[in-house]
Amino acid sequence: MAMASLARRKSSLLLSKSLCNSSDAFKYSISLTSFSRGFASGSGDDNDVVVIGGGPGGYVAAIKAAQLGLKTTCIEKRGTLGGTCLNVGCIPSKALLHSSHMYHEALHSFANHGVKFPSVEVDLPAMMAQKDKAVTNLTRGIEGLFKKNKVNYVKGYGKFISPSEVSVDTLEGENTVVKGKNIIVATGSDIKSLPGITIDEKRIVSSTGALALSEIPKKLIVIGAGYIGLEMGSVWGRLGSEVTVVEFAADIVPTMDSEIRKQFQRTLEKQKMKFMLKTKVVSVDTSGNGVKLTLEPAAGGEQSTLEADVVLVSAGRTPFTSGLGLDKIGVETDKVGRIIVNERFSTNVQGVYAIGDVIPGPMLAHKAEEDGVACVEFIAGKEGHVDYDMVPGVVYTHPEVAYVGKTEEQVKALGVDYRVGKFPFLANSRAKAIDDAEGLVKILAEKESDKILGVHIMSPNAGELIHEAVLALQYGASSEDIARTCHAHPTMSEALKEAAMATYDKPIHI
């Protein structure tokens, strides 16, 4: 580590605390005195920990609890573990994103690399089968992990009958009561519907239906320009659909740095994705063969119509707590239905905890996993730690967009003096060698201390590149720290090094 950089980091301690305290993100930065709490196995079927929900937060919490020596039961209503993410979200969408990207590359790019075919066609059933195989293998893998770690798995819909008892209507049509000293709610989130729009998963689909279309729509309308909408729009756009994204807000992916967002939108437009921003859906007509939307400007004005074969409603997600009986045991929720917890993930009801999408914070699978581990560690008398400012976000289009920390707009709002370093992939040798050089790395650092405040990457595999930046932020690194760390050549990661050099001094290769 450079000595000058170390000195600057020490001098920035007060600033670092200020930034942390003034963050507008809901986050934890937990460093609490450990406490001791003993557990006995109890009599009968009592558990030390019961987890309601087997998604990324729930199954990880259950495995961690068992690893810590706690008798653990996980209740999951779906009948397969992994939650929305594995069954109808993260995993199947990434499978289709990869398959559709391969087709698009074969159609448009392979010839440039000297690989030619007489023709290229899509076998949609085979593509869907590959996706389903990936999901099946992974869900079975989690069941194997449960057996390995001796987690009891109950398939059914659980609801509270007391703070220490969960009634489960099993998938076999029976009922059982699962008792636990500590119960964790990890039921995730559900699709957010829009007024006047009925999702039938045929012509008007959610992300679930968009992952299982039986044919490629000629025209696809996506309502919502967030992560899911852009990813699924990319899948079907690559396969031949004419994709139009309708968004009420003025921008796509509002959590992105605005400079990156604008370049990202231009890139998607070059891929023939159309955008109608500041636009409101007034009504939906499904009386004909297709779907007709009536639209108007978000601020009001003249109406227009837009027709498609399929409409994807991707307007976000909402906490799923329906039928849990939270009101029966007095668990408090906020105005949008999220469960209120303290820094230990404990609700206002003793022995009842909540994690993941049902509590405030980013609705991301990896955030839920971190919640699960930390929550169980607190239950076991250890220390937990989740800092939501350090949770990376990734949009898995091509190129991908990944980011962690603060945007330039957030840094400006804090009134912090800062520097910006950028490096385009057009100047990265590996990106040029593989003919995939669209994008850039952008680093924000505090001017006096050089402490990194945020990193934003648009590139192929940005979701893999971002973790060096996450680690840097986690340990309070400076841009000079990254710049003086040797990176293998030729790699895409060198663009991060060069952007760091541009932040504290000057890059070499531009």
TrEMBL record:
One Gene Ontology term of the molecular function aspect: flavin adenine dinucleotide binding
Cross-referenced NCBIfam families: lipoamide_DH
InterPro entries, alphabetized: Class-I_Pyr_Nuc-Dis_Oxidored, FAD/NAD-bd_sf, FAD/NAD-binding_dom, FAD/NAD-linked_Rdtase_dimer_sf, Lipoamide_DH, Pyr_nuc-diS_OxRdtase, Pyr_nucl-diS_OxRdtase_dimer, Pyr_OxRdtase_I_AS
FAD/NAD(P)-binding domain ranges (all copies): 48-372
Protein's UniProt keywords contain Cell membrane: no
Annotated S-S bridges: C85-C90
Active-site residue list: H489
Miscellaneous section: The active site is a redox-active disulfide bond.
Catalytic reaction annotation: N(6)-[(R)-dihydrolipoyl]-L-lysyl-[protein] + NAD(+) = N(6)-[(R)-lipoyl]-L-lysyl-[protein] + NADH + H(+)
Phosphoprotein listed as a keyword: no
GO terms under cellular component: mitochondrion; oxoglutarate dehydrogenase complex
Species this protein is from: Rhododendron griersonianum
Residue intervals of the Pyridine nucleotide-disulphide oxidoreductase dimerisation domain: 391-500
Protein name (record): Dihydrolipoyl dehydrogenase
Cofactor(s) this protein cannot do without: FAD
Enzyme class: oxidoreductase
Superkingdom of the source species: Eukaryota
EC number: 1.8.1.4
Residues engaged in binding FAD: K94, G158, T187, G188, S189, D357, M363, L364, A365, H366
Keywords for this protein: Disulfide bond, FAD, Flavoprotein, NAD, Nucleotide-binding, Oxidoreductase, Redox-active center
